């Protein structure tokens, strides 16, 4: 199984690829059914996704609400293209940056018994892309790393 | 030292070009002059110099004076800072996908029990 690969192929994109030991229909479901999505797309430790709404049709909207120690984060978007079991193209806007719209392309392809998922995230500018790389819920992650550092120091 | 947003910007801009990434890969093996860098890339000197300027402004390479030669050398710190940012972002997605592995296992088990 190939581990996660992350690259920055252009100034305004992030590309992620990972394979899963599951058939394409199961992986498609995990990306498009709200009860399944909220169980894994939670981000850093300590976050949950109390609200997950998906209207899976062209022009349909989705809404993700994450609950974090420092408050709440909301992502919404519209599905532009849907090719069942193969490709999703949707917009993505976060509540803390309503003017920055990202175009997310999710590709599913079969590789024997496995499914390869490719996420191509097209940001509206290099600044937005770099901000995403720089501060993805940075406080939560930093806090986690600090806790780990403290634990290491205490046990040294 | 924590990198500012604009210095990370310069690092990512520098890295977004395949020729510049290849130049860095070559310099990772050891310092090289402009003349030495031109040959494998089949590029004109102005082209190579332009790329080197971007890399220098990002702090990814420095120039040493050795008589009349001015070899370029790679600087590790900015690359490892940029790498740290990417690694943190990657870490979040790895966590997401680990949980997704669990969800998918659950779906598979659900089918077997039918």
How would you characterize this protein structure?
The complex is a heterodimer of chains A (156) and B (114). By secondary structure, chain A is of the alpha+beta class. Chain A has 4 helices and 8 strands; from the N terminus they run ββααββββββαα. In chain A, strand 7 and strand 8 form a beta hairpin. Residues 136-156 of chain A have low confidence and may be disordered. Chain B has 5 helices and 2 strands. In chain B, helix 1 (5-15) crosses helix 5. Chain B has 114 residues and is mostly helical. The interface between A and B is medium-sized, with 36 and 28 residues.
Query: How far apart lie the N and C ends of chain B?
Result: 57 Å
* Neighbour order of strands in the largest sheet of chain A: 1-2-8-7-6-5-4-3
> What's the average pLDDT of chain A?
85
Largest beta-sheet characterization of chain A = 8 strands, antiparallel
In DSSP terms, counting alpha (H) and pi (I) runs of 4 or more, how many helices of chain B? 5
- From the alpha-carbon coordinates, what is the Rg of chain B to the nearest angstrom? 21 Å
* Strand elements of chain A, count: 8
Helix content of chain A: 25-40%
Number of alpha- plus pi-helical segments of chain A? 4
Q: Please mark out the parts of chain A with pLDDT under 50 across 5 or more consecutive residues, or reply none.
A: 136-156
Largest interface: A-B, 36 and 28 residues
Give the H and E element order of chain B.
Answer: HHHHEEH
Structural class of chain B: mainly alpha
Shape of chain A: globular
Quaternary state of the chains? heterodimer
Shape of chain B: elongated
- Low-pLDDT residue intervals, each spanning 5 or more residues of chain B: none
């Amino acid at each position: 199984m190939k581990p996660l690969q992350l690259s920055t192929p252009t100034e305004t994109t992030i590309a992620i690829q990972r394979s899963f030991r599951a058939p394409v229909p199961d992986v498609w479901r995990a990306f498009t059914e709200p009860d399944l999505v909220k169980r894994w797309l939670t981000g850093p430790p300590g976050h949950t996704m109390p609200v997950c709404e998906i209207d899976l049709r062209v022009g349909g909207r989705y809404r993700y609400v994450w609950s974090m120690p420092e408050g709440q984060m909301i992502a919404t978007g519209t599905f532009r293209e849907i090719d069942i079991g193969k490709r999703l193209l949707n917009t993505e806007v976060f509540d803390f940056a309503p003017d920055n719209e990202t175009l997310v392309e999710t590709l599913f392809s079969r590789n024997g018994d496995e499914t390869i998922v490719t996420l191509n995230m097209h940001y509206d500018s290099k600044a937005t892309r770099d901000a995403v790389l720089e501060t993805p819920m940075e406080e939560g992650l930093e806090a986690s790393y600090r806790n780990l550092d403290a634990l290491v120091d205490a046990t040294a | 030292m924590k990198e500012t947003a604009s210095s990370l910007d310069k690092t990512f801009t520098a890295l977004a070009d395949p020729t510049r990434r290849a130049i860095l890969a070559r310099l990772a093996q050891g310092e090289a002059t402009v003349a030495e860098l031109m040959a494998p890339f089949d590029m004109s000197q102005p082209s190579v110099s332009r790329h080197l300027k971007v890399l220098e402004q990002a702090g990814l390479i420095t120039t040493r004076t050795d008589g009349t030669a001015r070899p370029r050398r790679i600087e590790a710190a900015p690359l490892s800072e940029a790498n740290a940012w990417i690694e943190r972002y990657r870490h979040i997605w790895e966590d997401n996908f680990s949980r997704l592995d669990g969800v998918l296992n659950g779906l598979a088990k659900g089918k077997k029990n039918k």
